[in-house]
């Protein structure tokens, strides 16, 4: 089988912030290849550089040294080519815009015709099971539905790469489980490449084809785990020995990373 094309490729990637008292190494020598169709989760304690890495991919932060390409381009070129959709921790919906108008925002900026906008909004709402809610305002929806609307907005212009920064972190466990299931269905239907930041070991193991374990500063990759789970994953797969074994390896990687602090 031929290997899928590389969507994100990082080689010896470093990012250092100049803080008042001393430089802070947010990312150190990160080497990673994200292939087309992968679902890659980044997990690690707060301050380990998970979100920073996502922001470097999105050209919201600039690397200090090393190399990174997104679809073979620099992050800046990829941003200008609109190569990715970004889903933030909070839904970040404008309260004065209806759901369809919120989803339309990037399409308006990109200059899509109103006919094309309408078609894309309907398709994106269908993908996240929000058809029929287009005329509602964000405050009329639950937290989980708002987050689905923000995923629809990221999907509307059909970028191949979806960057998701802890999108379900603020939701209760029942809603989170449901949205995890929905996200896997969405991934299967669209064949997007997804980079997903999380603090949750079960979430990382349940969703991913590959789990990137990161350590506290200086942010380093301590383990990259290829999942052996099938692509079809009912929620109760989380009770299987195979799932628990991967979760155990993630936990060990997190623990090993922490030992560097002492």
Automatic annotation (TrEMBL):
What sequence ranges are listed for the domain ABC transporter?
Answer: 8-241
Question: Keyword annotations for this protein?
Answer: ATP-binding, Nucleotide-binding, Transport
Specify whether Ribosomal protein is a keyword of the entry: no
Which Pfam families has this protein been placed in? ABC_tran (PF00005)
Tell me the PROSITE patterns matching this sequence. Answer: ABC_TRANSPORTER_1 (PS00211), ABC_TRANSPORTER_2 (PS50893)
Q: Kindly list the GO molecular function terms attached to this UniProt entry.
A: ATP binding; ATP hydrolysis activity
Domain of life, per lineage:
Bacteria
Which protein family is named in the record? Answer: Belongs to the ABC transporter superfamily.
- What name does this protein carry? ABC transporter
Native species? Rhizobium grahamii CCGE 502
Taxonomy of origin reads: Bacteria, Pseudomonadati, Pseudomonadota, Alphaproteobacteria, Hyphomicrobiales
